[in-house]
Design goal:
The complex is a heterotrimer of chains A (215), B (442) and C (425).
Chain A: H1 2-6, H2 8-34, H3 38-41, H4 44-55, H5 61-65, H6 67-86, H7 88-98, H8 107-130, H9 132-135, H10 140-161, H11 166-183, H12 191-209
Helix pairs in contact in A: 2-11, 4-12, 6-8, 8-10, 10-11
Chain B: H1 12-15, H2 23-37, H3 40-48, H4 60-64, H5 73-86, H6 93-105, H7 123-136, H8 142-154, H9 162-179, E1 194-197, H10 201-205, H11 208-220, E2 224-225, H12 238-241, H13 244-260, E3 265-268, H14 272-286, E4 295-297, H15 298-307, E5 321-323, H16 327-330, H17 336-346, H18 377-382, H19 385-394, E6 398-400, H20 404-416, E7 422-424, H21 426-433
Parallel strand pairs in B: 1-2, 1-3, 3-4, 5-6, 6-7
Chain C: E1 18-23, H1 24-30, E2 33-39, E3 46-53, E4 56-61, E5 64-65, E6 72-78, E7 84-90, E8 93-98, E9 101-102, E10 109-115, E11 122-128, E12 131-136, E13 139-140, E14 147-148, E15 152-153, E16 160-165, H2 174-178, E17 182-186, E18 189-190, E19 197-203, E20 210-217, E21 220-225, E22 228-229, E23 236-237, E24 241-242, E25 249-255, E26 258-263, E27 266-267, E28 275-281, E29 288-295, E30 298-303, E31 306-307, E32 315-316, E33 320-321, E34 328-334, E35 337-342, E36 345-346, E37 353-354, E38 358-359, E39 366-372, E40 375-380, E41 383-384, E42 391-392, E43 396-397, E44 403-410, E45 413-420
Antiparallel strand pairs in C: 1-45, 2-3, 3-4, 4-5, 6-7, 7-8, 8-9, 10-11, 11-12, 12-13, 14-16, 15-16, 16-17, 17-18, 19-20, 20-21, 21-22, 23-25, 24-25, 25-26, 26-27, 28-29, 29-30, 30-31, 32-34, 33-34, 34-35, 35-36, 37-39, 38-39, 39-40, 40-41, 42-44, 43-44, 44-45
Classes of the chains: A mainly alpha (215), B mainly alpha (442), C mainly beta (425).
């Protein structure tokens, strides 16, 4: 079982993830042609201007007004993306399989980043449960997606801390990680792919066409 | 969730039309619009929205209705598009009435929310897709549809007849001459620097505004014209009902009137939605990336006249003023700074509203909402309590509103919340402070 | 009324190199108000509405005043055959005045003065106490309508048509509107069909048939010919034209794959466009050109289905054919500058404004009036004569093509000039 999940399943997950992302990307580019105005309106300068304002914490008004969300979501996304990439255990597996490695996080940092993701997920869950305007637009899939995103981190932490049977926890961890990876292109987790493009288009429309700011 | 019942508003445009709808008819239109009239933006926006609710605080409807989630931008999308996508082929007619209420009467498509969405999702565009679906099923509030009917027949929004239009211009020219002897409204003049266009309420009920512009043009010695033929009205409610074919026709007449007269540029009167229609939505539908000849809003024009000294200010306006920044020229054109500069040049005591510039609150009337008519007035005024508070905090007496929809919408808010303020177009301020050389006086 | 036949260009003075016709500065100093000037086709006359004293208006032609005065006057125009018309009012009665002679009938209001393109004919929309209608060549229609919003005069000047409202409509009555309250009246006779909308209409060349853009129900438009709609329906249509000397009708229509030119509802060019409009036939009817947008934001000309390679980012105006139909020119604009493109070759010079191109009789040369700032120029084959004028009429080629008639205002004086073409090339 471990051999399967740590070998072929990871392969499958990466293949599905990458090809899914490519598929969504190409589909988006094609359908953007049909949406006549997109390419003519796009502007590199204003795309970057918009991305800049929305990737710097508190650079936009709503980020300042909702500072708690800003802090949590920035930490959440940074830890969620960078944590797994620089985690010693992950890199060790790559090194084992392919023989190359890169800079790793310290064990402690990795653990803290995992905890941040879990706590941030809890925050997002509570926000969803407690704020009427979010509760109103929440359906079961929103909880499911949050769970899918959080699961690899919870199981990762559990494995790391050896709360349960290590082997089983690691298997569950790899499965949840693979599931998340495979679902990214085909669920709303695809905002990972679309974020720069929706932002760039709006930035272009506001900046290049309408001469206004979008932050 | 214990949300209060939304008051039922009777609107024959919806109540009667809904009787002729069937799930099959609805499915046919929905499928056509979703499959062939929308593309990347719609599909990516629908996939990207993570239901985070961060757009909520952007919406004056949400803020004014005790943070009722049904009025948040994403809440409106949930109640309409999510349902439409989920059960495309089995939508009941009554649901379409809800869609029209939400999309036509409870959203001003002001685009403030797209500045609050971390992804920059154009939520107003999504609500426009809902309006398009409604319009294709003729589910449009009666008064808004009547305005669209007027556009389709007359190319103006208030059923102004051709002879009434010209007659009004000639009458206003006479009035203007009574003040300034060189004042004229040159009809159909070829090759003028400025083709001046207005919205139909001006000839219909606010004719003195045309007389005012004739005086301003005379003092500034502007080479200008207005057409005697259709295309003089720059407004466009078809853009907001979702009847894009009529929208396109109206915009074509407007731009072609200016092209026919070989005008160097179009100057539009003080109206925001008209600017949006003429600068963006109309040209886009017709295939022009930008208007075929330069098009500027009155605020831009007055800024030019004042900063170049063609209009001199004799005395500043003394009464305390604030400003209603029209979404379509501030968020839609970045004219906030120029608007401040012309106010600074003409008014002594100005208090800005907060929030302002691109973050202004919509007047609540724009986006075709006020054109939905009296049945929807109560909800419209209630839906903008936040604007009333914002204005009251400035303690100004006069609100400068360089937009017709804002003008009427703010007047309703003033009377609805008993603010004791008054609304003026910028041209009305200018008329009071502009220096008129003695040799021009009649 | 007395309508002159169109003067042959041959009979114009093509010899006198310069004639000073009028001193406009004198007019400006002698009248409290001088309105926009108009110049006759052959350039021998220049006219303007002038205020002679407070609230009294007349028309000044080459310095001479008309005997008639008006409380209000507007729409001063020379017809293609060189007659001077305006619309004037006294005692709240409006009428048309041709060459200082008012029509016998007067009306509550008169507007929309239209000339027939080929032989003399002038029509106006009129309002009387009985309703709205048309007066053509001085003769009012017997029938009146609730409202009338357009006017088209047949090429021979003998017939007129326009969009009319059939029954009145209460404010906000969207339900009666759906029944179709609009129709088309030709010589005062209604088409038997009513529509949601009737927009622009057009006569066939010999004037017997009329085609118009109509909307059948919400979201469905088509072309109707003599009241009978095409079988095919579209989301949108633009102004139709008749094939010269025939009864086939061509119109741009919005089909499921974009804008197409259709003939009697069937595909004409095997191409669809982002936009297509302003269709024009060559004088002999053999060729058809239209303004087309091959992709969003790009504009050019299509001739018989062949789309030009050069396109413009802002606008292209209606094409103009050479007399032999072999060449096509159009006004075009890119990056804020206007120019002319002839047979897919754009002129190099550009301007702040440029007027419709005129072809020489042999089709080899193209002339146009253009402007930079407040200076006007005559441009021939893309070459700017560099002589600046403060006002300018449209240049006209002589019948043999060797000379150009220029109507110029310089230092407040109006000159009629005949310039050898070779001096301008």
């Amino acid at each position: 079982m471990y051999e399967f999940v740590s070998g072929p399943l990871v392969w499958i997950a990466f293949i599905v993830f990458v090809s899914g992302m490519v598929y969504q990307f190409v589909t988006m580019l094609r359908s953007a042609r049909k949406d006549k105005v997109i390419y003519p309106y796009m502007s590199l300068k204003y795309s970057l201007r918009s991305l800049f304002h929305w990737m710097i914490p508190f650079a936009s008004r709503n980020m300042r007004d909702r500072y708690e969300v800003t802090i949590v979501t920035f930490l959440f996304h940074i830890c969620l993306i960078l944590g797994p990439i620089f985690l010693l255990a992950h890199i060790a597996m790559f090194a084992f399989a392919w023989g190359f490695k890169w800079q790793t996080l310290s064990q402690v940092a990795g653990t803290y980043m995992t905890i941040v993701v879990i706590l941030a997920s809890l925050f997002l869950l509570l926000r969803r449960l407690m704020m009427p305007e979010i509760q109103f637009v929440t359906d079961p899939s929103d909880y499911l997606l949050l769970a899918i995103a959080a699961a690899p981190f919870i199981t990762g932490l559990a494995a790391n801390q050896q709360w349960f049977d290590y082997q089983t926890t690691v298997i569950v961890h790899i499965i949840t990680g693979a599931v998340m990876l495979m679902l990214i292109p085909f669920t709303r987790l695809s905002h990972m792919l679309f974020f720069p493009f929706t932002r760039a288009y709006m930035g272009s429309e506001f900046g290049a066409v309408r001469n206004a700011r979008d932050w | 969730m214990g949300l209060p019942a939304i008051p039922i508003v009777s609107d024959p445009g919806l109540d009667e039309t809904v009787k002729g709808l069937t799930p099959e008819k609805i499915a046919k239109v929905v499928n056509r619009i979703i499959d062939s009239e929308t593309a990347a933006r719609f599909k990516v926006y629908m996939k990207t929205c993570v239901h985070c609710g961060l757009c909520s605080d952007a919406c004056h409807w949400f803020l004014s209705n005790d943070r009722d989630p049904r009025f948040s931008p994403v809440g409106k999308v949930k109640q309409t598009l999510w349902e439409i996508i989920k059960r495309k082929d089995s939508l009941d007619p009554a649901f379409l009435k809800e869609c029209s209420r939400i999309a036509h009467t409870e959203c001003n498509v002001c685009r403030r929310c797209s500045m609050y969405c971390p992804f920059g999702i154009d939520i107003a565009y999504l609500l426009m897709v809902v309006r398009r679906i409604c319009s294709e099923l003729e589910m449009v509030p009666q008064f808004l549809q009547d305005t669209v009917n007027s556009h389709s027949v007359t190319m103006n929004q208030m059923w102004v007849k051709q002879d009434e239009w010209i007659d009004t211009l000639q009458w206003q020219e006479e009035e203007a001459k009574g003040e300034i002897k060189t004042a004229r409204i040159p009809l159909d003049k070829e090759g003028a620097d400025v083709f001046y266009s207005v919205i139909a309420p001006e000839p219909k009920i606010l004719a003195q505004l045309i007389g005012n512009i004739a005086q301003i043009m005379a003092v500034a010695k502007v080479d200008w014209t207005m057409p005697s033929f259709d295309g003089w009205d720059n407004s466009n409610m078809a853009m907001y009902s979702g009847d894009f074919e009529t929208m396109g026709r109206v915009e074509r007449y407007h731009h072609e009137a200016a092209l026919k007269l070989k005008a160097r540029r179009i100057v539009m009167g003080e109206c925001g939605h008209a600017f949006r229609g003429a600068a963006y939505d109309g040209p886009k539908w017709l295939g022009w990336k930008q208007p075929p000849i330069p098009l500027i809003h009155a605020v831009d024009f007055y800024h030019e006249l004042i900063t170049t000294g063609r209009i001199k200010i004799a005395r500043k306006f003394k009464t305390p003023v604030t400003v209603q920044e029209p979404c379509n020229i501030v968020r839609g054109r970045g004219l906030g700074k120029k608007l401040r500069e012309i106010i600074a040049a003409t008014c002594e005591d100005f208090t800005p509203p907060y929030p302002d510039f691109e973050h202004n609150y919509c007047c609540g009337a724009g986006g075709g909402v006020i054109n939905c008519g009296p049945p929807w007035k109560t909800s419209r005024v209630k839906g903008n309590e936040v604007k009333a508070k914002q204005l009251a905090e400035t303690k100004a007496k006069i609100i400068i509103t360089p937009c017709h929809n804002c003008h009427s919408g703010i007047e309703d808010i003033i009377s609805g919340y008993k603010l004791g303020m008054h609304v003026k177009f910028f041209s009305e301020i200018l008329m009071e402070v502009m220096e008129i050389p003695d040799e021009l006086r009649a | 009324m007395n309508l002159k036949a169109y003067p042959e260009k041959h009979s114009w003075d093509w010899e006198t190199s310069t004639k000073e016709i009028a001193n406009i500065s004198d007019w400006i100093s002698s009248f409290p108000e001088v309105q926009e000037i108009v110049i006759s086709p052959e350039g021998e006359r220049i006219a303007a509405i002038v205020m002679t004293e407070d609230d009294v208006f007349s028309v000044c032609v080459n310095g001479e005043l008309w005997t008639n005065t008006f409380e209000k006057a507007w729409s001063l125009k020379f017809s293609p055959n060189g007659s001077l018309f305006c619309i004037g009012m006294n005692d709240d009665e409006w009428t048309v005045i041709e060459e200082d002679k008012p029509w016998e009938d007067s009306f509550d209001y008169v507007w929309n003065m239209k000339f027939s393109p080929e032989s003399p004919g002038v029509g106006v929309n009129v309002r009387t106490s009985e309703g709205y209608g048309v007066a053509l060549n001085g003769n009012p229609w017997d029938s009146k309508f609730v409202q009338m919003r357009s006017l088209e005069v047949s090429p021979d000047g003998k017939r007129a048509a326009g969009t009319v409202q059939l029954t009145s409509l209460a404010e906000g009555d969207v339900f009666s509107f759906k029944k179709g309250l609009w129709g088309l009246a030709v010589d005062g006779e209604l088409w038997g069909t009513n529509f949601l909308n009737v927009w622009d209409c057009v006569f066939s060349t010999e004037g017997t048939k009329v085609a118009a853009e109509v909307r059948l129900v919400s979201g469905r438009q088509t072309i109707a010919v003599d009241g009978i709609p095409w079988d095919q329906e579209f989301k949108a249509v633009w102004r139709p034209i008749f094939v010269p000397d025939g009864h086939d009708v061509i119109a741009p229509c919005l089909t499921t794959d974009g804008w197409r030119l259709l003939v009697n509802g069937k595909s004409l060019w095997n191409k669809s466009f982002n936009q297509a409009w302003n269709t024009v036939f060559s004088p002999n009817g053999a060729k058809l050109a239209a303004v087309v947008s091959p992709e969003f934001g790009r504009w050019t000309i299509g001739v018989d289905g062949n789309v030009w390679k050069n396109s413009f980012g802002e606008v292209v105006l209606a094409p103009v054919f050479s007399p032999d139909g072999q060449r096509v020119a159009a006004v075009a604009k890119d990056s804020g500058k206007w120019t002319i493109i002839v047979n897919d070759v754009p002129w190099i010079e550009n301007f702040d404004m440029i007027w419709d191109p005129a072809f020489s009789p042999d089709g080899l040369h193209v002339a146009a009036k253009a402007a930079r700032g407040s200076d006007y120029f005559v441009v021939v084959d893309g070459k700017n004569s560099n002589q600046k004028f403060s006002k300018l009429g449209a240049p006209v080629f002589s019948p043999d093509g060797s000379r150009l008639l220029m109507k110029t205002v310089e230092a407040g004086r109006y000159f009629r000039k005949i310039v050898p073409l070779k001096n301008l090339l």
